[in-house]
Amino acid sequence: MAKKIINKNPRKFRLEKSSSSFRFPHFVNEEKREVWVYIASGFPTTLAVPHLMKIHYPGYKSCLCNRETFISIGGKL
Predict the structure, then answer these.
(1) Mind listing the pLDDT tens digit for each residue in 43-56?
(2) Band of pLDDT at residue 22, cut at 50, 70 and 90
(3) Residue 38 falls inside a structural domain
(4) Cα–Cα distance between 73 and 8 in angstroms, integer?
(5) Angle, vertex CA 18, rays to CA 12 and CA 11, nearest 5
(6) Phi, psi of 46, deg, nearest 5
(7) Radius of gyration of the chain, Cα coordinates, nearest whole angstrom
(8) Reduced to 3 states, what is the DSSP secondary structure of residue 61?
């Protein structure tokens, strides 16, 4: 019986260098309790954001934004 290969997902969203398990580039505004998330591809990738928010930032509001807005608020790609 062949062994199942685990953790060889070719569709990884995060960089190998990233220590965070939140898969998308994001910027956290602690004062307003908001997390700004940049997703280049759009639907259906955006459906993963609410699930990740419940795990990593409970009680915070998620805001999806475009590239220009993300860079202007201080996010790094």
Answers:
(1) 888 998 999 999 99
(2) confident
(3) yes
(4) 34
(5) 5
(6) -65, -20
(7) 14
(8) strand
Task: Please give the helix or strand (H or E) that residue 35 lies within, else none.
Answer: strand 34-38
**pTM exceeds 0.90 for this model:** no
Residue-range definition of the domain harbouring residue 66? 26-72
H helix runs in the chain, sequence order: 49-56, 67-72
Q: Answer yes or no: are the C-beta atoms of 13 and 46 closer than 8 Å.
A: no
**Per-residue confidence (pLDDT) for residue 38, from 0 to 100:** 94
The reply to whether 55 falls in a domain is yes
Q: Looking at the domain assignment, is residue 37 inside a domain?
A: yes
pLDDT of amino acid 1: 56
Task: Determine the pLDDT at residue 15.
Answer: 47
Q: Are 33 and 61 in contact (CB under 8 A)?
A: yes
- The one-letter code for the residue type at 36 is W
